[in-house]
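User: Before I run my own analysis I want an independent prediction to cross-check against. Here's the chain; please return only the structure tokens and, at the end, one sentence I can use as a sanity check.
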Amino acid sequence: MTSATTMTAALEPVHRDRLMPLAREVCFAAGTRLFEEGRRADRFWIVRTGTVDLDLHVPGRRPAVVETLGHNELVGWSWHFQPYVWHLGAEAMTPVRAWEFDAAAVRAMCAEDPEFGRAIAVWVGRVVAQRLHASRVRLLDLYAPYGSGGLA
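Assistant: Structure tokens:
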């Protein structure tokens, strides 16, 4: 993920300061599923330490890992868009410490403060665009006859 999508790069200090009081510290053991594709998206996380793999269900195959997230990266964007259903799955690949946020509380704060809401929307939109690109490249590498065509 590019630095422009990490929380510290994407959000001005005033918006980070507004968001962080809603954070709750959580830990996940390696192998813990944070969420499953198709289920209700009611929270999100910012990774403090460790790594989280994002994966995509592929019928008849193991889930395809499309991206690995680490320090200061947003885990989960589906909470921001109706119908609030996960588009990917996520699993802790190492022990993970993270800040967890209640999606409904953050959405309410966004509705109350349009400037804050716009900052969150732009951040999440950048993350969605980056994840779409990463998923496309990874799936082409896995399933297209000649890969993504990227230079080696």
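Sanity check: Helices lie at 7-10, 13-19, 103-112, 114-143.
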